[in-house]
Specification:
CATH class: Alpha Beta
Order of helices and strands: EHEHEHEHEE
Strand order of the largest sheet: 3-2-4-1-5-6
Number of helices: 4
CATH topology: Rossmann fold
Oligomer: single chain
Helix content: 25-40%
Strand content: 15-25%
Shape: globular
Distance between the termini: 38 Å
Number of strands: 6
Structural class: alpha/beta
Length: about 160
């Protein structure tokens, strides 16, 4: 199995359903996504082929902001099976056939369950505490073993 980099991103802070039924990003959510996008493009050497998002407004908006900084060859694309309650086994299986680097912009509890499944084989064994607009960098080595490389959250960027 080939090595791979995968970046899991929880969408930026979004408005409540009462305030905005589409749950678009708040001003703070946009600022945080912008801050994280600028930081990871300038300090991590991140290069990705695609940025995938769930299709929900808040995830799409976060993906578009990240795209402005990272400019992946494949651009931004809506993908299936990234909704909050979707089965992480589906993407885990798809990732087995990939070696290109990608970003998945999604939601909780999905991202937590996917990270746990990849790292320890159990989607219910929480291994990462995701934050809005935060990025979790995962690495798959040549033997197919996943590990966490780094985590960047808006709160730790000066």
């Amino acid at each position: 199995m080939a090595a791979m980099k995968l970046y899991l991103v929880q969408h930026g802070l979004s408005k409540s359903e009462e305030e905005d039924p589409d749950r678009s990003l708040t001003d703070q959510g946009r600022k945080d996504a912008d801050k994280v996008g600028a930081y990871i493009s300038n300090h991590t050497g991140i290069q990705v082929e695609n940025i995938y998002h769930s299709g929900k407004t808040r995830a799409r908006q976060t993906a578009v902001i990240l795209n402005e900084y990272l400019k992946p060859r494949g651009g931004v694309e809506e993908a299936i099976d990234l909704l909050p309650m979707d089965d992480p086994e589906i993407w885990a299986g798809m990732l087995n056939n990939r070696s290109d680097s990608a970003i998945l912009v999604s939601h909780l509890p999905y991202l937590s369950r996917l990270a746990s499944l990849l790292i320890c084989g159990d989607p219910e064994n929480k291994v990462v505490d995701f934050k809005n607009a935060g990025v979790v960098s995962l690495n798959r080595d040549n033997e197919g073993v996943w590990s966490v490389d780094w985590i960047i959250t808006p709160a730790i960027i000066k």
